[in-house]
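Retro notes (design track)

What went well: tokenization of the new backbones is finally stable.
What didn't: we kept losing track of which sequence belonged to which structure.
Fix going forward: every design gets posted as structure first, then sequence, in one message. First example under the new rule, 159 residues:
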């Protein structure tokens, strides 16, 4: 069943991921885009959630803005979550499950500037793809570290 667009007056959360090195925009640009979406649909912004700590952002627990936002969304404090792009979300399975549970339990709608309303099936597929990408990336990092360690162990010390 497709997600319907929340009506005017609905409560919205804005999620912003704080890394200015992404091509789709720094924090202030993301915030402006998301606010414009809320204004255009006449949604009331109930909160803005900014994750800036790259290491902690991937956890999705209550110490992150995503975790706090998902917690509040699961308790019915918003009907829509606005973000610039799905790529702004962490790729960890635990972080994504927080958001997925909010969508499943309360029917909160995920809205992106790039794709509009994100259907649950689309989000589920994106979750699987990003988790697989993360596993491949982690494997490559571990393999690279192992090669470097081996290289350092076999390189004679300079005299």
């Amino acid at each position: 069943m497709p997600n319907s667009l929340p009506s005017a007056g609905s409560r919205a959360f804005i999620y912003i991921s704080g890394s200015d090195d992404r091509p789709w925009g720094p924090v202030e640009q993301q915030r402006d885009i998301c606010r414009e979406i809320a204004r255009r649909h006449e949604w009331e912004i109930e909160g803005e959630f900014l994750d800036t700590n790259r290491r902690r952002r991937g956890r999705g627990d209550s110490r992150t803005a995503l975790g706090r936002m998902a917690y509040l969304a699961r308790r019915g404090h918003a009907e829509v979550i606005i973000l610039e792009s799905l790529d702004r979300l962490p790729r960890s399975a635990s972080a994504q499950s927080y958001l997925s549970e909010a969508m499943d339990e309360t029917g909160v709608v995920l809205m992106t500037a790039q794709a509009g309303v994100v259907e649950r099936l689309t989000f589920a597929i994106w979750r699987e793809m990003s988790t697989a990408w993360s596993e491949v990336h982690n494997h490559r990092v571990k393999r690279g570290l192992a090669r470097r360690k081996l290289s350092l162990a076999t390189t004679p010390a300079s005299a």
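Added context from the reviewer: The first helix runs from residue 27 to 41.
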